Amino acid sequence: IRWQTEPEGIRIIWTESGGPATAPPETQSFGTRLVSSTIRQLDARMDYDWRKEGLVATIVLPRRSIAD
């Protein structure tokens, strides 16, 4: 996990490696729905990069969400 501050807020990058190949899920699990709901409530953005060597997920928390 890495993070960095940016003018728009904080960027958090979760990088997986060394596991089995990844692919986008065909259905949404409870965990996926929970994360999506939390991201919406924070007015944040989350991007998934399903790489062969592992998932890279990036979350951008806007500055206004952090300050509240």
Question: Can you walk through the features of this model?
Answer:
With 68 residues, this protein is α+β, with helices and mostly antiparallel strands. Helix content is 25%, strand content 41%. The protein is built from two helices and four strands; from the N terminus they run E-E-H-E-E-H. A four-stranded antiparallel beta sheet has the order 1-2-4-3. The two termini are 24 Å apart. The mean pLDDT is 91.
Characteristic key phrases:
2 helices, alpha+beta, 68 residues, 4-stranded antiparallel beta sheet
Strand ordering within the main sheet: 1-2-4-3
Strand content: 35-45%
Shape, per Cα inertia axes:
flat
> What does the radius of gyration come to?
13 Å
Order of helices and strands: EEHEEH
Structural class, by secondary structure, is: alpha+beta
Number of helices: 2
Q: Give unreliable regions as ranges.
A: none
Overall mean pLDDT: 91
Query: What's the total count of β strands?
Result: 4
The major β-sheet equals: 4 strands, antiparallel
Q: Tell me the helix content.
A: 25-40%
**Distance, first to last CA:** 24 Å
In short:
The chain is an alpha+beta fold and 68 residues long. It has helices at 30-41, 63-67, and strands at residues 2-6, 9-15, 45-51, 54-62.
Secondary-structure topology with pairs:
Layout: E1 2-6, E2 9-15, H1 30-41, E3 45-51, E4 54-62, H2 63-67
Antiparallel strand pairs: 1-2, 2-4, 3-4
